[in-house]
Design goal:
The complex is a heterodimer. Chain A is about 40% helix and about 20% strand. Chain A is of the alpha/beta class. In chain A, the strands form three sheets. In chain A, strands 3-4-14-9-10-13 form a six-stranded mixed beta sheet, sandwiched between helices. Chain A is globular, with a radius of gyration of 20 Å. Chain B is α/β, with parallel strands linked by helices. In chain B, about 45% of the residues lie in helices and about 15% in strands. Chain B has 13 helices and nine strands. Chain B has a nine-stranded parallel beta sheet. In chain B, helix 7 links the parallel strand 4 and strand 5. The chains are: A alpha/beta, B alpha/beta. Chains A and B meet through strand 2, helix 1, helix 8, strand 11 and strand 12 of A and helix 5 and strand 6 of B.
């Protein structure tokens, strides 16, 4: 694909049609179009409204626990310096974790949910629907629905319901109804189809709380803006703690909301290398992965044009990842644009590599990362030993891994 | 330039009755059976054929059409084969309009220019692409109109008077009014409301207005057809195929015959529609 011309700023998208270059857009049924336009109208009203911002900031601080810490991962840094020495390189950059795992509900998902529930309230909606993969977004949606007194229905693939049972139970405790989706492979893609079918049926009163920076415009923009608190904080924190910008920032990419949240405030800092990590599953030579940008092609699904895993007939593939949160055959459209423009590198990490990073982080840091976040850490493990000691890497620790202990036990052949 | 759809609609107007528009899923349960179903449709009284293009993620469809699409894909159906099927049908019937209905991605991957060229060569008259609202007209609608293919737009209960002109602007052939907010195969909406909506749309356009989503029986076709220029039936036809398939997909009776029986009844329904209106 032709590389688009380098823009003056990477932070001005999307345009009025919701496009990031050729990506994004509003590919939805006519029934939903008036709803999307209504959402866009309200979003444009609130995004610069000081009262809305104040309410969100207050909730972020006192309810979600922001700002999240930027933590110098000394144990991991020491370990990777030993690795560097052992190979005769004598380097090893300083590794920082942006601790989104410490947020209320245990991941970055709460940032987006608080923003969108306030938007739903402004719009006078009466009912919340959401899709979820790992269940982190489902839990965050059920949480804000409980806090603001909304009924909430969460669509979740049947496969994910089985492998993320602790989160299913949490959602139910929070008062949400979890509807398992058996279509397809029963993962995030199928849950999203079903959520869209619900929305197209219940157009009057329902707010669709999308969990990632994908879907029809304005979702990719508004989810990004709610998640950009991650990068805005991290940028200020590293300047405060180290007196300079990082050399490299890394985040995992499923739909890509934690990644775009970290990346966006750094996009115009051209000296900062930005790396997004896709789920390489069991390897890119087969079909058991979710690396849509490394091994897919642009196509149209779930309201936007973006990189997708698909066959020659334009049928969407199911993909595979050890991590339910990355098990999605597409990606947010802004990532597709950042990929083609060359500003962000996207590379795959295999299931096994993520699992190793999960175990390593648990052992040397006393932090159990989500398997999603472990993909990002795994890439740091790969590149940090070849960097210099005075260099700095920030890894987005997007969620905590308590939900994954059953999956990991299975992988390791252990019984809990 | 009048298309087969325009000519058919004009003819039905002189006959004083609404069109029976029948949807079937191309490739369900396999290519040969689907082609025999397609050929049976006009003989049983269908005026316009909607040919479903199967897609892995049909976001606006209910369980019946989802399952039909999956059966077709499992049977090896592709967009290439759908166009081939249309061409085979067209070789024996040069009058019945064919409208392709589905989602954008398979067309996008096929390539818009190549698709339009091949669609015309296969005798396709119109397109209904669910996930291309007027905001995305540059993608396929405008190129299709330039190529001489009708682009049939869905209007829905959420399409208010302010938005209707935008929806109708590049629509041709006919307007497809979706009788309810929801997915295909849901229960039929309040028929009085549907009639009022058709009247509202007719206030904005001279194009024929066909009504679909939820019409399953001859009686419903008669009632809806009393106030519309056409009645679209999809899920009931797809179900007629599913009903003669065994648990392993084996045929327990002839699907084409099952569909023909259903469509004959529906055809009687639409032919009685204007009598109903006159009552």
């Amino acid at each position: 694909m032709d590389k688009p011309a380098t823009p003056n700023s990477f932070r001005t998208g999307p345009d009025e049609q919701g496009m990031f270059g050729i990506f994004g857009g509003r590919f939805v049924a006519e029934t939903l179009m008036p709803l999307i336009l209504d959402l866009e109208r309200h979003w444009n009203e609130v995004k610069n409204d000081p009262e809305f911002k104040a309410e969100l900031t207050d909730l972020s601080t006192h309810y979600a626990g922001r700002p999240s810490k930027l933590y110098f991962a000394e144990g991991l840094t020491r370990h990777l310096r030993e690795v560097s020495s052992a190979k005769g390189r004598g380097g090893g950059a300083k590794v920082y974790f942006k601790r989104e795992d410490l947020n209320h509900t245990g991941s970055h998902k709460i940032n987006n949910c608080l923003g969108q529930i306030l938007l739903a309230k402004r719009m006078g909606k009466k009912r919340i629907i959401a899709e979820t993969g790992a269940g982190q977004h489902g839990v965050a949606s059920a949480t804000v629905a409980a806090r603001f007194g909304y009924p909430c229905v969460v669509y979740m693939g049947a496969t994910d319901v089985a492998r993320q049972s602790p989160n299913v139970f949490r959602m139910k405790l929070l008062g949400a109804e979890v509807r398992p989706v058996t279509a397809g492979h029963g993962t995030l893609k199928d849950a999203m189809n079903e959520a869209l079918r619900d929305w197209v049926t219940n157009v009057e009163d329902t707010y669709y709380l999308i969990g990632t920076a994908a879907g029809p415009h304005p979702y990719p923009e508004l989810v990004r803006d709610f998640q950009s608190v991650i990068g805005t904080e991290a940028r200020a924190q590293i300047l405060e703690q180290e007196g300079r910008l990082p050399d490299t920032i890394i985040a995992c990419v499923g739909g890509g909301s934690n990644a775009i949240g970290l990346f966006h405030p750094f996009l115009d800092d051209r000296q900062v290398r930005i790396i997004g990590i896709e789920a390489g599953g069991r390897g890119l030579d087969g079909i058991e992965h979710c690396a849509s940008m490394s091994a897919g092609a642009p196509g149209v699904l779930h309201g936007n044009r973006t990189y997708l895993l698909q066959n020659a007939d334009g049928q969407i593939m199911d993909g595979h990842s050890i991590s339910a949160g990355l098990d999605y055959p597409g990606v947010g459209p802004e990532h597709s644009w950042l990929r083609d423009s060359g500003r962000v590198e996207y590379v795959p990490i295999l299931d096994d590599e993520a699992l190793e990073a999960f175990k390593l982080t648990t052992r040397v840091e006393g932090i159990i990362p989500a398997l999603e976040s472990a993909h990002a850490i795994a890439h740091a493990v790969k590149i940090v030993p070849d960097m210099d000691k005075d260099q700095i890497v920030i890894v987005n620790l997007s969620g905590r891994g308590d939900k994954d202990v059953h999956t990991v036990a299975d992988m390791l052949g252990m019984e809990i | 330039m009048a298309t087969r759809i325009d000519r058919r609609m004009a003819k039905l107007k002189t006959e004083g009755r609404p069109a029976l528009v029948t949807y079937f899923m191309s490739g369900d349960p396999d290519y040969d059976t689907a082609l025999s179903i397609m050929k049976a449709l006009p003989k049983a009284g269908a005026d316009i054929i909607e040919m479903g293009m199967p897609f892995s993620d049909p976001m606006a469809d209910g369980p019946a059409i989802q399952a039909a699409g999956l059966r077709a894909l499992k049977g090896g159906q592709t967009l290439v084969k759908t166009l081939k099927m249309a061409a085979e049908f067209r070789a024996g019937d040069n009058e019945t309009p064919i409208v392709l209905m589905g989602y954008y991605n398979p067309i996008y991957i096929y390539g818009v220019d190549r698709f339009l060229k091949d669609a015309i060569a296969s005798g396709i008259d119109g397109l209904i692409v669910v996930d291309l609202p007027p905001e995305m007209d540059e993608e396929l609608c405008i190129p299709a109109l330039k190529a001489g293919i009708n682009f049939i737009r869905l209007a829905t209960p959420t399409t208010d008077d302010k938005r209707l002109p935008k929806v109708l602007q590049n629509t041709s052939g006919f307007v497809y009014y979706v009788s309810m907010t929801g997915i295909t195969g849901s229960a039929l909406a309040d028929t009085g409301k549907v009639a009022a909506a058709v009247k509202r749309i007719k206030g904005h356009t001279d194009l024929p207005v066909c009504v679909g989503f939820g019409v399953k029986t001859a009686e419903q076709a008669r009632v809806i057809g009393a106030n519309a220029d056409g009645v679209v039936v999809g899920t009931a036809i797809v179900n007629a195929v599913a009903n003669v398939l065994g648990p392993k997909g084996e045929k327990t009776a002839d699907p084409a015959e099952a569909v023909a029986t259903l469509v004959s009844g529906l055809a009687q329904g639409v032919r009685a529609a204007r009598l109903a209106a006159a009552e």
